[in-house]
TrEMBL record:
PANTHER family: D,D-DIPEPTIDE TRANSPORT ATP-BINDING PROTEIN DDPF-RELATED, TRANSPORT ATP-BINDING PROTEIN
InterPro entries on file: AAA+_ATPase, ABC_transp_ATP-bind, ABC_transporter-like_ATP-bd, ABC_transporter-like_CS, Oligopep_ABC_C, P-loop_NTPase
GO MF, one example: ATP binding
CDD domains for the chain: ABC_NikE_OppD_transporters
Keyword Transit peptide included in the entry's annotation: no
Protein name according to UniProt: ABC transporter ATP-binding protein
Top-level division of the source organism's lineage: Bacteria
C-alpha cells in the first residue's frame, strides 16, 4: 500500500473572538471559544479523493483551510508526504474556492493570475519559462493561449473555475483542497468541471480533499467520504458503502434529503445544527436523533470501526440497536 500524500491527525480548531466584537454583537462579554473542528483525522493517498460532507457550519471549510495552512491548528497536525506541515511545503498544497468571481483578481490578465503562484513560490523560474508553463496549464484546463491576455470578466463561470484550477495546479501540487468548487456553477457546467478535475487527477496523481454539501457531487468524485457534524467526523467510509448503507443516523438524514432518494413516507430532515458555542453534552446529534437514549445524552461516542472498512461514532450502531 502506498503511503498517504496528506494526513490530518486529530485536527482541532477553536476560534476566540475579541471581547470588543462580542460586546458589539451581543452587548455582553464572551462566553467561551467556538469549537469549529474537533479531533478530525483522515488520510488521502496519491490520486485519491476524500469527500467531506455536512451541513453549513459543520466545519468543512475550516478543515480545508487547516489542511493548506490558512489556519493554524489549535490541536493536532497536518502531515504532507509524512512530514509535519511547514512553510517549505506550501507549494505542494493548493486550494480551489467556491466562487470563481471573488477569488480571481479582476485587474489581472489570466496569464498573470495563473503565473502568480510560480512568481511567488518558484522564484528561480525565468519569465520565458513561466510563459511556457502558463500556456501548458491553460491548455490542460481546456483554454487557449490567447485566453491568457484576457481578463476574468470576459469569461463564463465555468471558464473562470478552469482558470482557478490552472492557477492551483501551477506549482505542481501533490494535494488540492477543493471547497465547493462547482456549487456556484450552472448544473450543465458542473459535470464538465468535475470531469476535468477527475481527468487532471488521473494524469497528475493529485490527492483531493473535496468539500461539498451536495452528496450527489461527492458520490461522483470521491473514493472515501467523511461526514461532519458539529465539527467532528461522525462517519468515515468507502464512498460506495456510504451510499449503499449509511450507518450514522445523521448520514441517513443527509441522504434522505438528496432529491430522488427520499422514499414515500420518509419524514424530511428536521432540526438544526447545535449552537457551536454551546453544543449539547454527549453526542452532539442526540437532540435530532431518533435513536438517542440516556447514554447518547451523556457520553460522546468515539469513531469506532464497524463492518466493511466503515468507522462510525454512534452508540446505537455500536450496540446494534440501529
Ligand atoms: N474565522 C472565523 N472566526 C470565527 N468563527 C469562525 C471562523 N471561521 C469559521 N467560524 C465558525 O466555525 C464554524 C464552522 O464553520 P465552517 O465555515 O468551517 O463550516 P462549513 O461546514 O464549511 O460551512 P459552510 O458550508 O457554510 O461554509 C461555524 O460555526 C463558523 O461560524
Amino acid at each position: 500500500m502506498s503511503s498517504p500524500v496528506v494526513e490530518a491527525v486529530d485536527l482541532s480548531k477553536q476560534f476566540a473572538l475579541p471581547d470588543a466584537w462580542w460586546r458589539r454583537a451581543l452587548g455582553r462579554p464572551p462566553r467561551r471559544a467556538l469549537q469549529a473542528v474537533a479531533d478530525v483525522s483522515f488520510s488521502i493517498e496519491r490520486g485519491k479523493t476524500f469527500g467531506l460532507v455536512g451541513e453549513s457550519g459543520s466545519g468543512k471549510t475550516t478543515v480545508g483551510r487547516l489542511m493548506v495552512g490558512l489556519h493554524a491548528p489549535s490541536g493536532g497536525e497536518v502531515r504532507i508526504g509524512g512530514r509535519p506541515f511547514a512553510p517549505a511545503l506550501r507549494r505542494q498544497v493548493q486550494m480551489v474556492f467556491q466562487d470563481p468571481y471573488a477569488s480571481l483578481n479582476p485587474r489581472w490578465t489570466v496569464r498573470e493570475i495563473v503565473g502568480e503562484p510560480l512568481r511567488e513560490q518558484q522564484r528561480g523560474m525565468g519569465r520565458a519559462e513561466r510563459h511556457v508553463r502558463v500556456g501548458e496549464l491553460l491548455a490542460a484546463v481546456g483554454l487557449s493561449a490567447d485566453d491568457g491576455a484576457r481578463f476574468p470578466h470576459q469569461f463564463s463561470g465555468g471558464q473562470r473555475q478552469r482558470i482557478s484550477i490552472a492557477r492551483a495546479l501551477a506549482t505542481d501540487p501533490s494535494f488540492l483542497v477543493c471547497d465547493e468548487p462547482t456549487s456556484a456553477l450552472d448544473v450543465s457546467v458542473q459535470a464538465q468541471v468535475l470531469n476535468l478535475m477527475k481527468d487532471l487527477q488521473r494524469e497528475r496523481g493529485v490527492a483531493y480533499l473535496f468539500i461539498s454539501h451536495n452528496l450527489a457531487v461527492v458520490r461522483h468524485v470521491s473514493d472515501e467520504v467523511g461526514v461532519m457534524y458539529a465539527g467532528r467526523l461522525v462517519e468515515r467510509s468507502p464512498a460506495a458503502a456510504i451510499f449503499a448503507r449509511p450507518r450514522h443516523p445523521y448520514t441517513r438524514l443527509l441522504l434522505e434529503a438528496v432529491p430522488g432518494r427520499r422514499r414515500d413516507g420518509d419524514a424530511p430532515p428536521q432540526g438544526e445544527m447545535p449552537d457551536p458555542f454551546d453544543p449539547p453534552a454527549g453526542c452532539a446529534f442526540h437532540p435530532r436523533c431518533p435513536l438517542a437514549n440516556e447514554r447518547c445524552r451523556l457520553e460522546r461516542p468515539r469513531l469506532l470501526p464497524a463492518a466493511d472498512g466503515v468507522q462510525v461514532a454512534c452508540h446505537a450502531v455500536a450496540e446494534g440497536r440501529d
